[in-house]
Give the backbone structure.
Amino acid sequence: MTKTVSIILACVACTLPSSVAFVPAALATTKTTTRLAAGVEDGINSRRDVLGVAFTAAVAAAAVTVPSAAWARDEYLSEPTDEFKESERQRTEFRKAQIVIKVKMTATFAQLTTVSKTEDEIVADLKELRKQVQEVGGMPLGIKKDDLVKVVRSVKAKGFWPTSCEYAYQGLITEIAYQQSPNKDKDVANPL
């Protein structure tokens, strides 16, 4: 509060004419014969002086009306709110579920690359991956579609990749694209 008072007093001192503010009362003489001479003696010599006084008054008014915003500090909560705790609980549950899904999908990747050698085993693994993508609604956190493509291409590069495996792989890629598409909810009534 003392800062506000000192700012106000400084602004008021700036708005006073120089003859009144800085000259002792004994030395100041007042000889007013006309209105023009009275204005000159009061310290208002031109329109610029009036604008200067108005500007100083506006600054003083702003300093008085918004002192708390100028010296305000951020306040931090001492404890988290209930909403924050609830969102943190939901976040950890989601991450745990995603980790479980990722472990299952990684195990299927490993089986596809190391264990599966026949056509039926490869197709079964690709269908299992497609089923997992359908259950999750896309790829789990931490596994990208590109990672899946790299794994399948490494299996393809080994040489044995029959047509049924390619159909299962294309079905998997189509399912991922469908699950990750923002336009999953189709309007049946509107063909466009």
Summary: The chain has nine helices and no strands. Residues 19-23 have pLDDT under 50 and may be disordered.
